[in-house]
Structures are given as C-alpha cells and as structure tokens.
Design a protein that fits this description.
seven-stranded parallel barrel; single chain; disordered N terminus; 11% helix; 2 helices; mainly beta; elongated
Length: 432
C-alpha cells in the first residue's frame, strides 16, 4: 500500500509540475503584449518602444522574442512609435486601430517566427529596418497594407499573403532565402545584384520595380517560379517599362506580365510548361520602328545564348502598335536564345492577339496554329502576322498565296503544312 501511495504521489507531483510548466509556457511564449501609450507629445518618452519604457505597455511588460507586440485603437499615435536599438520581438500584430495608422520607426527591429499580422484594415508602416530572425509569414485582413523600409532576410524563408511594399529587400550573401507570394500584392522596389533570393508566386501578385533612378530589384542570382494563379509583373515605378534580371525563370501556371513594350525579362534560362506570358508589341513612327517586350535568355551579360522552352499560352498585346500598317518583313523579337522553339523546346499550345486598335488593319484577327507557327487571317491591308516558334519572332508577311516566305527568314514548315491542308480540302471538295 505504501508503495502504491508513494507512486501515486509522484505521479500527482509530476502532473502538477507539467501543468505549472504549461501555464508558464502559455504566459511566456507568444503572449500578446499590448501597446497602451497615449502621449500627445512627439518628444515624450511614452512614445518609445524598448526595455527602458515599460509604462508604454499593458502590465508594464515590454514584449520580447517570445511575444507578439500588439497595437490597437489608440487616439494619440500620430507621432509614431520609436524603436530602441537592439529591440527584438516574436511578432507584430495590428488590431483595429481606429482612424489612425502606426508608423514604427528609428532603429532596427528584430522579428521572430510570429511575423506580421495586420488586421487593422489600414496601412501600417515600418520606417525601422526589419531583421528577420526566423522563417515567418506576413498576413492581413481586408484592406490591410504593410509598408516597410529595409528588410534583411538573413537566410530565412518569408511567405506573404497581404498587400506589402518592401523598399529594399536584402539577404546575407550566399545564404539562400525564398520569398513565397501566396496571396495579396508584394511590391519589391529595390535590392542588390547578388541577393540570393528565390521568388515563388503561387497566388496573388509579385511586382519587382525599377524606381526610375536606379536598378531597382535586380538580382541575377535569383530564380523566379510562377505557378497556380500567381502573377509576376515586370514594371517600373515612375515610367512605362522596366527590365528585371533573373538566373532561371520557370512557369507552370499563372501569368508573367511584362507590363509594356520594351520591358525585358533577362534570364539565364526560361522554361514555360503552362500558364500565360503576356508580351507587348510597339511601334515608334518617329523613326524607332518596331519594338517589343522580350524574354532574353542571355546567360549573363552578353549575347542571347541561354535555353528557352515554352508551352501554355502566349498573349501578344498589340496596343502599342497603334493603327499603323507595317511593311513586309517587319519583325518583333519576342524571345531571344539558342533554343527559341528549336529541338530542345516545345511550342505554345495557345496564342492570342489582344488589345488591337479598332482602326488597325489587324483588328478582329486571331491566330491559328500550323505546325510550329501561328498565323492570323489576312489583315485589311493584305498582310498576315506570323509568330514563329523557331525564331521567337512575330513577323509581318504578305498574303501566303502570293509570296514565298524563305526570303523573309520565316521557316517554311507551317506554310507547307497549311498548303497541304488547303490542297487536301480542295481535292476532297472536287471528289464530293
């Protein structure tokens, strides 16, 4: 009996100890520490966040790396929150903030695995640099937006699912990080040429922008993968077009939108097995002639020598071509690389002609596939458009019954197949 009692007592003590640790863990790890400062003075210490300013937090408890710093309705937050040097926190959450938005500024803020969750329905701004201490997710509710200054990934993995602007995205050299866009809009304005950051867009939108005065996010060491319903936008803040540099680009679904004629996707290799790439055709009547957005598989800075392989949908936006008629042989180079539709590449399964000016000779036309080439019907000026998989070019040609293509550098495979099919139909009609 004594042995049984002693054993039972030990078990009870053990359970009490475990329960005590559980309570301690609940209180210590991922606890919400709420900001309560209500000072109206811009210079007051009560607007500061750090271990020396405990009265700014509920219960006089400053959040640590185990806690979530929580911000809610606060009538006097227009002067922002100043972060003390060396501050680290498990995460940041914004609840209903009333009519105001917070600006968290000053020194670097270390951010742990809880990430950022913006449920305020408003823009929240980090003027302070963010240094990520662990893999994390940034999320938000309806109407939420997060604007940041510098973000240092430190080799971590970041997933975003709300509207976010990152002014400068950096990573520890040679330590690979992945940024996954799983909803919302992520706009990365700046970053260096060797950041070792891979991007994956599974839903939502990723935009890497050239701000017009510098290189923008320009990382030739980074890979880009687009899948699902994700969209990559190649744009330029303050200007109509912009280029981005990548190591390898792959797309199995979603959309890559080059955002305008003259915007180039420069990469060591481009592989599209599904999804849609949207490219733009333009024309400069002032002497510049035909120009377009292009996929340039350059294998680094130099001639186009990288591999190209494509399938899925090609969407050619013709809005930049205006209402012009074009001379025979006018060429827009959409893909540049040694395998542009060659033996190592596949061909698009669908080609679209979009946003054609109603007064253009090509208005109302669509593509039909013949072999490895895509033909429109005849335009009102007697010309045809041909996209050729072997060259990656879109070419203006004369009406097929009156011209042989060879002199224009257009492969004969599609033309030959078209002629054979047309002849077969004529013979069948005669027999009938």
């Amino acid at each position: 009996m004594k042995l049984k009692f002693a054993f039972a007592r030990k078990v009870a003590v053990g359970l009490i100890a475990v329960g005590s640790l559980a309570c301690l863990a609940t209180d210590t790890f991922a606890a919400n520490r709420t900001w309560t400062s209500s000072s109206i003075s811009a210079s007051s210490y009560r607007q500061k966040w750090g271990t020396a300013f405990t009265s700014n937090w509920a219960g006089n408890t400053v959040p640590t790396t185990a806690d979530v710093a929580t911000f809610g309705t606060n009538a006097f937050n227009q002067y922002g929150v100043q972060v003390q040097a060396g501050t680290q926190v498990g995460g940041v959450r914004f609840n209903n903030t009333g009519t105001n938005s917070y600006v968290i500024s000053a020194s670097t803020l270390g951010l742990g695995a809880q990430g950022i969750n913006n449920q305020s329905g408003r823009q929240q701004t980090f003027g302070a640099a963010l240094s990520l201490l662990a893999n994390q997710t940034w999320s938000g509710g309806s109407g939420a937006r997060i604007v940041t200054n510098n973000v240092e990934l430190n080799g971590t993995q970041l997933t975003t699912s709300t509207d976010i602007v990152i002014n400068t995205l950096q990573n520890t050299p040679s330590t690979l990080s992945t940024v996954t866009v799983a909803g919302g809009n992520l706009d990365v304005v700046g970053g260096g040429p060797n950041e070792y950051i891979n991007f994956a867009v599974t839903s939502g939108n990723l935009t890497t922008s050239d701000p017009g005065q510098g290189a923008g996010f320009d990382s030739s060491a980074s890979n880009l993968a687009v899948s699902g319903s994700g969209t990559f936008n190649n744009s330029k803040v303050g200007g109509p077009v912009g280029d981005t540099n990548w190591n390898l680009v792959t797309m199995s679904g979603g959309t890559i939108d080059l955002q305008g004629a003259g915007a180039n996707l420069i990469t060591n290799g481009y592989t599209q097995t599904g999804g849609m790439i949207k490219q733009y055709v333009g024309y400069d009547a002032g002497g510049g002639g035909a120009f377009s957005s292009a996929v340039q598989a350059t294998n680094g800075a130099g001639a186009a020598t990288g591999p190209l392989s494509y399938d899925g949908t090609l969407d050619i936006d013709f809005s930049g071509a205006g209402s012009n008629s074009f001379a025979f042989g006018t060429t827009w180079s959409l893909f540049q690389g040694v395998n542009a539709g060659g033996a190592a590449a596949s061909n698009f399964s669908t080609a679209l002609l979009d946003n054609v000016d109603p007064s253009s000779p090509y208005y109302g036309l669509s593509f039909t596939r013949y072999g490895t080439e895509w033909f429109t019907g005849p335009a009102t000026d007697g010309t045809w458009l041909v996209f050729q998989a072997q060259t990656g070019n879109l070419v203006v040609v004369p009406e097929p019954s009156t011209i042989v293509f060879a002199g224009l550098g257009v492969a004969m495979s599609g033309w030959t197949m078209w002629k054979k099919r047309r002849l077969s139909k004529l013979l069948a009609a005669k027999v009938g």
